[in-house]
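Researcher: Re-running this chain for the archive, since the previous output was lost when a drive failed. Same request as before.
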Amino acid sequence: MSTKRIGKVLAKLEGEVAAGNYYEAHQMYHSVCQRYVKQKQLNDAFDLVQAGIKVLARHGQYGSALDLAMRMLDVFEDKNLPLNDEARARFVEAFDEFPVAESGGREFARAVLRWTAKVCGPQFGDSLLHHAFGARYYREMAYYEAEAHLLYGTVDSGKLLGCLSWDFGQQSDSPDRGYFIARVVLQLVCLKKIHHATVALETYIKAYQQSSRGSELASEAMVSSTSRLEVRLSSQSPLSNFAQFLLATVQRDGSAELYFGLRNQYKAELGTDEFLEQLYDRIGRDIYDLGPKRAPNMLDDLMKSFFGGGAGGGSVARGGISTGSVSELD
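Model: Regenerated structure tokens:
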């Protein structure tokens, strides 16, 4: 179809929306999209739907905008289309039309990630899309939603997680602002993303050093027979210190002795938050093979709920913020 022809169609539909005929316009977008799909003019169909999402969202018709976004995803699925950079760009553009506080954006992101998990893996969806969604949430200071995506993202997501942990800590009334980098590092270690955890922690420590509170840090060398590790200990944040020692521990020789020693050293700090305790227990089980016990695990439940596979749970973190949002988008 010519650019001129589709331009006339879009102008007519936008006029219907501007006149307040939302239902009629919504149905017209659907019927014209279907016609393009039958004619195998998929790019025209996608252009039409994306224009509809934009104009309907601009008029606050988020339910109709979500319906069109899901229709676009249905076409990708029904036609067995590949996940490529063009597809990612379309999904991100549609997602960006929804305000952060609007549930439609979260619902669409979940559906897209479920589809990407089916067509190309990994289990929790495409890492590039996770990064794009998480970066948008981070920019708009929706930190828990950002964390939920960035944990499954790219190495660049690790950098954003470090920035997020620092920014969140500065805005929190938590007695230990290192809580946020500790929970990020613990979750990444549970996911076996040691490099991502290292990048996140290095970014966080750099922000700490460059801040007005940088004088709180003191360098200390940890030396073993095979390696030397420089840590920067905070006089005000035991959990920042814990995060550094945790990464050093899991990258050593695999001995559980250090694991138990670290737990004893930071027993009081870990004991203030059930989520941190459960994550640390999971590391003991999965990395150090410390027993077969499998009590109900918060992270497992949250990861399942990410794709609607069960009810999300979670304890209440310091400051009254629910940790249930860590790996779910609701």
